[in-house]
Amino acid sequence: MYQDVQNVDGFFQQYVIKGMNMEDTDLESTHEFLDLWVKAYETTFGKISEIPAIGPMREKSEKMSKGLPLFFSLYSTWMDTVSDFQVISVEAMKRMNTKTISMEGKTGVENYKEMYNVWMESYSETFKEFLKSGHFSSDMGKFMSHFLDVQKFNREMLEENYLKPSNLPTKSEIDELNKELYTLKKQVKELSYKINAARD
Question: Angle at the Cα of 32 (from 28 to 33), degrees rounded to 5?
Fold first, then answer.
């Protein structure tokens, strides 16, 4: 059970001692650490939500424990996206360095302006390619899906633990009132139209 935790600790120590270079590893170490961290969570805190609750607060505890995997999924997806953007940033930097090799040792306003243009062009091209890729679309789809799940869970917890005990209207109740109000307005318009048509 603690193997993944030990792996994370060992990896972190290795990372600090050796001082891994970002360009040398192509950020593989970041992905490796993220994978180990996910496994460590699943074998430790991830098991908490599977423990059956007992006592008078059992039902409420079970509902709240369901939020742990939701928050974790959102956070891990976000971390994966951040890692991807790190990779893209390094790739853009490499492209810029390749284009600016001929400018080494040169000074002057025009050279600085040219370097700025190369920097803008390199980063714009690299990020445009990434943002148009299917990988980015898939990641954003996963992130939004997890985000909506967390948002729904938070709303349900807010309504059940705060709004209902305080006798305050919930979002679902307000939505129901708006729907009923819309229906009534529609019926009034239809009746008004029929009355006016009958008078004519």
Answer: 120
pLDDT tens per residue, range 97-106? 888 777 766 6
- The Cα 33–Cα 28 span in angstroms is 9
Q: In angstroms, rounded to a whole number, what is the distance separating the alpha carbons of residues 93 and 99?
A: 10
Q: What are phi and psi of 107, to 5 degrees?
A: -130, 175
The model's pLDDT over 119-128, given as tens digits with 9 standing for 90+, comes to 899 999 999 9
Decide: 77 and 21 in contact? Cβ < 8 Å: no
Cβ atoms of 14 and 85 closer than 8 Å: no
**Can you read off the two tokens belonging to residue 59?**
């039902």
Which region, left, alpha or beta, applies to residue 107 given φ > 0 means left and ψ of -120 to 50 means alpha? Answer: beta
| Contact call for residues 40 and 5 (beta carbons, < 8 A) | yes
Kindly list the domain boundaries of the chain, sorted by start residue. Answer: 1-43, 62-168, 171-200
**Interatomic CA distance for residues 198 and 4, integer angstroms:** 79
Give the C-alpha separation, 186 to 138, whole Å.
41
CA distance 12 to 125: 34
Report the alpha-carbon distance of residue 11 to residue 15 in Å, rounded. Answer: 6
Q: Is the pTM of this model over 0.70?
A: no
